[in-house]
Amino acid sequence: MSPTDSIEAHLASIAIHGDDELARVPDVVQPIGVSTTFLYDKNPQNLKTAKERANQPADSGQYYSRISQPVVRNAEKVIGDITGGHAVLFNSGLSAFLAAMLYFNPKRVFANDCYFGCHGVLKLLKRNYGVETYGLDKIEELAEKGDVIHVESPINPTGVAFDFEKYVLLGHSKGAYVMVDSTFAPPPLQDPFKFGVDLVMHSATKYFGGHSDLLAGVIITKDESVKKDILQDRGYTGAIPGSLEAWLLTRSLRTLNMRVRTQAASANAIVKYLSENIDKLPKLAKVYHSSLQTEEFVKKQLPLGGGPVFSIEVVDKETARQLPSRLKLFAHATSLGGVESLIEWRAISDERCSETLLRVSIGVEDQEDLLQDLVQALS
To answer: Counting Cβ atoms within 10 Å, is residue 14 exposed (0-12), middle (13-18) or buried (19+)?
Structure first.
């Protein structure tokens, strides 16, 4: 039993102690496990055949690292506890998305203008299996039982929010499954399960990882039997992350609450200043962020305000090309969620984006320093 099971623990405590019960050695920090294979029970009476173990979860015993490994189980335990569900870890966010598609096996997928990699996976499914893809505006007209509605919110790259409750009610009325990509608003910012979502995914590379040094993805379900099926699928697709990545992820989860709260608070304050002073910043044309939305659902989904990512439009393409090099505290790079602040001329990596759009990922540096840096560049 974990120490947090006996008290009404909060996220910060669960992130530190959620996997205490899985400790294998007395070390305060559990070690990285590098073995690909594990000893069977020394007592012959405890040995079971594969048929006898058929109804047990894939991670119920350690046999072979493609199926399950101790360090991955630790990370899954912590993520499951802090999200109130059952987590299955993958070697990237796109692996997690593909795993969800393989599990649901839909004929049609309805999605917003989400991460281009997810649309790439859908193109593969369309090419190989004839899966049809539509926008969210086609749900009422075309959705049927067994279809999937995929909502990314806040959405990449703008950080604008979409209404979970609306799509859950509409999707479930059609017999469709609703899954949410909550990468841009991890705990403690957002809990999609409160709105009846069937499945939640994250690119754990981003805020769960938090240090720009690992690739991982995760699927979270409220149904333990769904976790069992997805674990079995993962064993066949070989999409489990390596020990080092899982260990780094577990390390990072310990500080998730502090990092995300700091990053989100800074982003909200910076967005507020930029939007209120846009007429004083000659290079700035527009600011996108969920904190600027006025719809009532935004406050319900994001009670602490918007996430740590926002986007800006500048006055022309050349400004977008030059502006990152004028910043002192923002690294010009893709990805997001790390402790360091990043900015990206998004047209470099995403052909769908406007050539005047820059995506900003706020790190844990001093808020005032980051704001001053942006202001001098936009001036």
So the answer is: buried
